[in-house]
Write a structure and sequence with these properties.
Elements lengths: L8 H12 L6 H8 L6 H9 L5 H17 L4 H17 L3 H14 L19 H14 L1 H5 L9 E2 L2 E2 H8 L1
Antiparallel strand pairs: 1-2
Helix pairs in contact: 1-2, 1-4, 2-3, 5-6
Length: 172
């Protein structure tokens, strides 16, 4: 009967250190911590990650990464719910600025805001006054709805009897 190949304790430890310390430890440091000799840790780490040399180690690393990805996965629903919790906690503590920021982040996640950047090629000082004014008018006209916005009724700016508009005016 042929024995099934399996990971050694050092190989298992290397893979776990590599995945769970991603960005905080180098593969060489993971190999040393797992028990490999300092002098050969760099090349050993490289071989351990290579599926041609150590297919079981590479497979285990992939499984650990997939497990971690699923555990920390961010979905739209979980993201928006978490921002909602943050907003609620901020409101409970009277941190209206933090609550407003959390609500804006929820709106961005939901696609309610459009971020726009305008790049102007060339130097402004090289443009004539008429060209500058024409450029500014075009930018204004193209973004008039965003700049002027829509009138929001005061009732929609109230939370628990506190008008958000009044709070924002106090903070500024």
């Amino acid at each position: 009967m042929v024995a099934m190949p399996h990971l050694t304790e050092k190989q298992r430890k290397f893979a776990e250190l590599l995945v769970y310390n991603e960005g905080r430890m180098t593969p060489t440091e993971c190999a040393i911590e797992a028990g490999y000799a300092k002098g050969s840790a760099y090349s050993e780490a490289s071989r351990l990650k290579n599926a041609n040399n150590y297919p079981l180690v590479a497979k285990y690393i992939g499984e650990l990464r997939e497990e971690a990805r699923k555990k920390y996965e961010v979905s739209f629903e979980s993201h928006v719910a978490e921002l909602g919790k943050i907003r609620q906690e901020a409101l409970k503590k009277g941190a209206f600025s933090a609550a407003a920021n959390a609500e804006v982040a929820r709106g961005k996640a939901a696609g309610l805001y459009i971020e726009q950047r305008i790049s102007i090629s060339g130097k402004l000082e090289d443009m004539s006054m008429e060209a500058l004014e024409a450029k500014m008018k075009k930018i204004y006209d193209d973004n008039k709805v965003i700049i002027e916005g829509e009138k929001i009724e005061d009732e929609t700016l109230e939370y628990n009897g506190v008008k958000i508009k009044d709070v924002l005016n106090e903070e500024s």
